[in-house]
Design brief:
Length: 454
């Protein structure tokens, strides 16, 4: 007989913390969270005393119940709205140069190695595992121009169980000979990549977690013809779009010299059918007011990548202004412009960035946590699927333990759940991420030795 209890795959009992809005974090104490066999949140009961738990469980097997202790809590998984999978290979290096020189000197030579599928398999296994281990349950990945390596990345993400947008990068101008395509091959391979992901998804016995995303690297590396074709592909397949925007002053100047018909850099994408409610633009550091207004008008999202913006000396984005204009904003690690694949580090850099910009309008913990979870979900247009623990959403989450082995966080008797949570945000790391769930399933990370590559 199909009963409520028989449809439940897991129940968590303990503290749950999530964002209700950008202004409010909800701390649910003694919560009972029921996950169904499709990985969705079926029921949430708050303030259940110990002696009521049995009655509330309604016959769910005890082996499906996870009971948290006072140092543990569950939060929604982090959403990394901008990360480059091949660049993890030089994460932590190369911060001496600004963007355009950094691309030529470090990034393009390393990305060219992904022409080799075997190399891609080994390296991508490591990139994805590191991202997941840091609690990123959803990521917007840039791959490279290479079709076979892009397919490998999809296979690895599928195997490891992350939710993801994956983009085959497009580059047909202003790129080195060893990392460039023609317009025709770029469009052909992008179409082949989309078809590959769609075919892979059709074979699954669960709701797919991976979506192809149209990924012109940035306007500098794509001709107007190619941008137009990519806009058409996004429309034909109804796909999200990601790129870079207004990261660095030299980049902006070069872009405007290439696209003089457009009124500004943001308009370059709009003029090619690439700016809509499924677009994610990384950086947006040097935006004119009219560009922010265009983002708002099109309901496009911004990936704020403060760590990268500090490292590459790009500048400091005005996130307060974006929030005031009600533009969708999430956080991006932007590995390897950013030196860390952890959204916790992105959150900390975002706070520092806001303090350095204007000490009177700094981002608050409530806002930072929202950006790392619900904000990211909105940027990906997945706000009805993930981002918090609303009934009916899919359960993507981190079980945090502030007293885990080797925890960088120290808790004391005076700590409340609120202070433990805040310590995790500012002091914690992946050692505190005891378990990670995507679509209700615990993610099993591969042995890092297996994934390593010399
Ligand atoms: O931070 C960045 N990383 C990149 O790889 C890139 N490509 C274009 N613009 C970029 N910015």
């Amino acid at each position: 007989m199909h009963t409520f209890a028989s449809s439940i795959s897991k129940v968590f009992y303990g503290t749950l913390i999530h964002s209700l809005s950008i202004k409010e974090i909800e701390y649910i104490r003694q919560g009972l969270l029921f996950i169904d066999d499709e990985g969705k949140i079926a029921k949430l009961v708050k303030n259940v005393p110990e002696d009521r738990v049995e009655a509330e469980l309604e016959g769910v097997d005890e082996d499906r119940v996870v009971r948290l202790n006072d140092d543990q809590f569950i939060i929604p998984g982090f959403i990394d709205t901008h990360i480059h999978a091949p660049q993890y290979t030089f994460c932590g290096n190369g911060h001496d140069l600004p963007l355009l020189e950094w691309l030529d000197t470090y990034t393009f030579p390393r990305e060219s190695k992904f022409a080799d599928k075997e190399y891609a398999h080994k390296l991508y296994t490591k990139s994805v595992a590191r991202s997941l281990r840091n609690g990123t349950t959803s990521a917007c990945w840039f791959a490279t121009i290479h079709l076979d390596a892009c397919k490998e990345l999809v296979n690895i993400i599928q195997e490891q169980g992350q939710r993801a947008y994956v983009g085959k990068v497009n580059m047909n101008q202003n790129s080195p000979d060893f990392l460039i395509e023609t317009t025709e091959s770029s469009v052909r391979d992008t179409r082949a990549f989309i078809e590959y992901v769609n075919k892979t998804n059709a074979q699954l016995n669960h709701k797919p977690l991976i979506t192809p995303i149209i990924t012109p690297r940035f306007a500098i590396s794509c001709t107007s013809d190619l941008l137009t074709e990519l806009g058409k592909l996004a429309k034909e397949y109804n796909l999200p779009i990601q790129s870079h925007l207004c990261e660095n002053m030299n980049e902006i100047g070069f872009t405007m010299s290439l696209f003089p018909q457009s009124v500004n850099y943001t308009a370059v994408y709009a003029d090619h059918g690439l700016l809509n409610d499924r677009t994610i633009m990384a950086h947006c550091v040097h935006m004119k007011d009219e560009e922010l207004d265009l983002m708002k008008e099109k309901n496009a999202g911004i990936s704020h990548c403060a760590n990268s913006n500090f490292n590459l000396k790009s500048g400091m984005a005005d996130v307060r202004k974006m929030i005031n204009k009600d533009i969708k904003v999430g956080l991006g690690t932007d590995v390897a412009g950013g030196y860390s694949p952890s959204i916790l580090e992105a959150l900390r850099a975002s706070r520092s960035c806001s303090v350095a910009r204007n000490a009177d309008t700094t981002l608050l913990v409530t806002e930072l946590f929202y950006l790392a979870t619900m904000g990211g979900a909105r940027v990906m247009e997945l706000q009805d699927t993930i981002g918090n623990f609303q009934i009916g959403k899919e359960f993507d989450a981190i079980l945090v333990n502030t007293s885990a082995d080797n925890s960088p966080v120290d808790v004391f008797d005076h700590d409340s759940i609120e202070t433990k949570f805040e310590k995790y945000l500012f002091v914690g790391d992946d050692r505190n991420n005891e378990k990670i769930y995507v679509q209700g399933k615990e993610v099993r990370l591969p042995d890092s030795k297996v994934a390593s590559h010399k």
